[in-house]
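Recap from last week: sequence in, structure out.
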Amino acid sequence: MRVLVVEDDRALGLFLQKGLKLEGHDVDWVVDGETAVEHATEHQPDLMVLDLSLPRLDGIGVLERKQRFPNTSVLVLTGRSQTEERVRCLDLGADDCLLKPFSFHELSARCRALLRRRKQFESPVLKFGEVEMNRMERSVLHAGTEVELTAKEFALLEALLQRQGACCSRKDLLKEVWQMDPESNTNVVDVYVNYLRKKLAATLPDAKEPAPQSVIETVRGHGFRLRSGR
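Predicted structure tokens:
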């Protein structure tokens, strides 16, 4: 799963990043609240491990912006023992709270529990605009017409659908879809985006619609995102 660690204590942040990577997760780490909101809005991680005491924007401020990353589970780390503070976090959208100091084993177990809960309630159907994907049946509809996709094309479209119109970088797609080094010098993402554009456009009455007007939009300098309408 994609995890974002938000912790300004560099020793602890590095420790959490390394430990969660060893658990098999794809982990990014940022050190302030504003960057956390920007990163979560753009990348829509599965889980955020959020410290409350942060520079620029504190953890409460991050939670107050939770609507920008609605599908991200949040585990709050806090040294504040007051019950009222933890209740406030939960009311703002946090899924769990863990008091400092804590053992990494407990944090890891709580992360696994949150991710299991996420999977349990996750719908097999992803939909955005005129694109609908059933992950259980491995089927895709565009404007009501079935689209035949290869395994990689399906995985690429799934990654874009999970963002619900938010931009997804080439680096993220290389990591998620191809399990490749995000710094790899390859154009495989662009090649497969082009394949997808052609297959999705072929379902429309104006099948010769040019790629820039496709359901997949290129965000110059950032990556790709889905359009909500034609």
